[in-house]
Amino acid sequence: MSRVLVTGAGGMLGRDLLAVLGSRPDLKVTAATRAEVDITDAAAVRAAVAGHDLVVNTAAWTDVDGAEEQEAAATAVNGDAVGHLAAACAATGARLVHVSTDYVFPGDGTTPYAEDAPTAPVNAYGRSKLAGERAVARFLPETGYVVRTAWLYGAHGPNFVATMLRLAEQREHLDVVDDQHGQPTWSYALAAQLVALGDAALAARAPAGVYHGTCSGQTTWYGLARAVFALRGLDPDRIRPTTSDRFRRPAPRPAYSVLGHGRWAAAGLPPLPDWHTTLADAFASAAPPAPWKVA
């Protein structure tokens, strides 16, 4: 029986990951929230990793705007702490699956970014996450896996889909940016993909390195908002397109965050389905307290 450690287990993705792993009687799972394991503490990380065959790291500094003013603090979590995890895994022989971000790219592309495309983050958050990717590559060149994701939504945390539904109850019309392109990704679907990659890693079927864990296809925030309203039975025309310069933020956002999925074939796994499909699945299968489900 393989032993799996999930760090960041209290977050949106972490909780979905535990739900997926909970259906696997062949795995013994240890759930570690931030309160239980501080991944910035190297000694605590070594103790937590000991005895596990696979570590899935979903712990992260996720405040993109806050990272602009506190880059050192963000890098301590997203970079240095990932190095602690990777070093601990290297010492014990455990595999590591680490979740990263599309923000490592500059966002000026016009075709999907391949897994080996040059990185050039445009904000502090992206730089902090790239530091974590490099730590995995340095300590675990043969047994480390980086899965970049983007535009996550799910039942267990604040996200764009939940925000749109909350605002739908407060406003007649919503202005949503139509000049940022990406791939809406259901956290539960990503969790299942991470588990599948972990299985392949433990069986030595998956080459180490970078994979892109986003849903297929692409849209804008405006397109996603319209799809959310349609699935909820609301009038999509209540959503009005606007531009990013109407919503100034401390951290610049990439205009184009569409990722390619070519490396999944090397692991013998299909990429995630089209974002329309998984959005519909999320609305159909999620139970309360999911924000899109009426109790």
UniProtKB/TrEMBL annotation:
EC identifiers of the protein: 1.1.1.133
Biochemical pathway: Carbohydrate biosynthesis; dTDP-L-rhamnose biosynthesis
Cellular component terms per the entry's GO annotation: cytosol
SUPFAM superfamilies attached to this UniProt entry: NAD(P)-binding Rossmann-fold domains
Domain of life: Bacteria
Residue span, RmlD-like substrate binding domain: 3-284
Similarity-based family: Belongs to the dTDP-4-dehydrorhamnose reductase family.
Functional note: Catalyzes the reduction of dTDP-6-deoxy-L-lyxo-4-hexulose to yield dTDP-L-rhamnose.
The protein, known as: dTDP-4-dehydrorhamnose reductase
Organism in which the protein naturally occurs: Micromonospora echinaurantiaca
